[in-house]
Design brief:
nine-stranded mixed beta sheet; TIM Barrel; alpha/beta
Amino acid sequence: MDVTAKREDLKLTVNEIFYSIQGEGSYALHPCVFVRLTGCNLRCTWCDTTYSFYEGEPQTITQILQTVTGYAAKNVEITGGEPLLQKNVYPLMHALHESGHKVLLETSGSVKVNQVPQFVHTILDMKAPGSGEHKKNRYENLQLLKSSDDLKIVIANHEDFQFAEDLIREHKVEALLQNPVIIQPVFGELNLAEAGEWLKNSPLNLRLGMQLHKYIYEPTLRAV
């Protein structure tokens, strides 16, 4: 079976595909196509995409490629839910890469990233206690990241911030990554200025994340 035939056969359950402005990480403020896959193994208290847990329709890799290539952007992010729960996500990554796209992956720290290809820019979202899911973090993922990848930790309070600092120190993250760790306050719950003061007073290499897309667009806006 040739590659084209395989792409016709391989399916993923897709929640939505949309074109927007990247709001987080190293590619923030760049145009980006988002492929949101259905399903998640976590139930974070602050999740803003709960609709992705169950909603979605099967699509072949060929169908996904046709939609993605209809947009001008060269950046494409595979997200969820938790996209690594679907085994066909890996051939999708290769197909997107072969079509000339820069492939980004947004994944939690709960699924091992050892099968993610080296050409993918990974944004690893490790969970703090405020999420209610921090016990499901797989810390071995930190060692599997490339130095150019991003680590993001969403925080709801100072306890979460201290958790993030402890994680960075314990796992020697600053020696693993060239980018500052992204500390992202829960949108609408934690004051950015307050979190900014914590960052300013920390000796660690940190960056304040702001979910910029929620400032550009209506925060509850969904693809139609």
